[in-house]
Amino acid sequence: MDGGDVTKEGKVTCASWIKRPENAHLVVIGKSSSLEIFSFDTETTSLSANPKAKYVFEESGDPVRIAVHPSGDEFVCSTTTGCKLFELYGHEDNIKLVRKEFDLEDVGPQKCMAFSVDGSKLATGGVDGHFRLFEWPTMRIIVDEPKAHKSFRDMDFSLDSEFLASTSTDGAARIWNTSDGVPITLTRNSDENIELCRFSKDGTKPFLFTTVQKGNKTLIAVWDITTWKKIGHKSLLKKPASIMSISLDGKYLALGSKDGDVCVVEVKKMEISSLHKRVHLGTNITSLEFCPSERVALTTSSQWGAMVTKLNVPADWKEWQIYLLLLGLFLASAILFYVFFENSDSFWNFPDPSSRPKIETLHGDPTSDEQWSSFGPVDLICGPGK
């Protein structure tokens, strides 16, 4: 495994990043009948040795999926019985995890959950195929469709929160308008199953990425969201994918395989940037998320628990590095200007008056013959009548 991997042993069922100010991010890990909060060290790419907070479910039910609000102050945890809402208080070593009353505590297990990018909506997709879309935090129902899918497989919001894509275990995929809930079904061939979905997040022309299983071949398909037509596909992972994620800046797409590999794709080129083999040796990767600020991936599996892995991708420019580069360019420009000033005859480079040559007077000695010797005698000619 590649640099900085840390495993939290135990029967881990799900995990997610919690974005916090000043990059002091946390990780919430779902285990059998409990939730644990760990801090993350960016220098060592590791989680804290012990949890900073813990919640034990008094009733029966194991965590299934976690959706963290973009603010990082609250998250929803789906269990085998329903959904629970939690809020975070405090900082660093004084973190408190508080459960709040929630309208979805008896809806059954939700295979998929997601907050919109702007935090104004919450979507849930049940194991039973029931789709619910709410305003947040009012919980006003926008969509309530009991038979949206046979059973949910994956879902994701677009960057502008206008659309939500969802996939089913039977290979179907639908696009939901989050304003009115009107769905569109993506077209596919009879031998194709659309399995995973993620919208582009780089802020340029928006696309939808999906994995398409066609026999034994796994493809990444790209869809134009203005027409919902497939504009291309590419085979990269070469094996079935179990989970897909995209970085917050939209530069990288990651695929987790069913035998424990993680493939990172550079979106701009649609080429593999790094391949991390045997991250979860021989085991299906059940969750995969990019760190909010670092090129680090959080993954889970039933056998190996939760891991954080430093990705072998080109390092991003830090803010202080950009300022240092600008300062260097300014200093280099100043030096070049000084050299040019010292060695040029520019308008501003006036000569030193003391170095000017002396100009001799035109009024010489009247008694001297030297200044007139070159002219010779002057012949005065008189006119007629002399």
Map the helices and strands.
Blueprint: E1 6-8, E2 12-18, E3 26-31, E4 34-41, E5 46-47, E6 53-56, E7 63-68, E8 74-79, E9 83-89, E10 96-100, E11 110-115, E12 121-126, E13 131-135, E14 141-145, E15 152-157, E16 163-168, E17 173-177, E18 183-185, E19 192-199, E20 207-214, E21 217-224, E22 229-234, E23 241-246, E24 252-257, E25 262-266, E26 271-276, E27 287-290, E28 296-301, E29 305-310, H1 319-342
Antiparallel strand pairs: 1-29, 2-3, 3-4, 4-5, 4-6, 7-8, 8-9, 9-10, 11-12, 12-13, 13-14, 15-16, 16-17, 17-18, 19-20, 20-21, 21-22, 23-24, 24-25, 25-26, 27-28, 28-29
Average pLDDT number: 87
Secondary-structure element series = EEEEEEEEEEEEEEEEEEEEEEEEEEEEEH
Helix-strand makeup class: mainly beta
**How is the quaternary structure best described?**
single chain
| Number of beta-strand segments | 29
User: Beta fraction of the residues?
Assistant: 35-45%
Query: Which stretches are poorly predicted, pLDDT < 50 over at least 5 residues?
Result: 1-6, 361-386
Helix content: under 10%
Tell the overall outline. globular
Measure the end-to-end span: 125 Å
**What is the CA-based Rg, rounded?**
36 Å
Largest sheet: 5 strands, antiparallel
How many helical stretches? Answer: 1
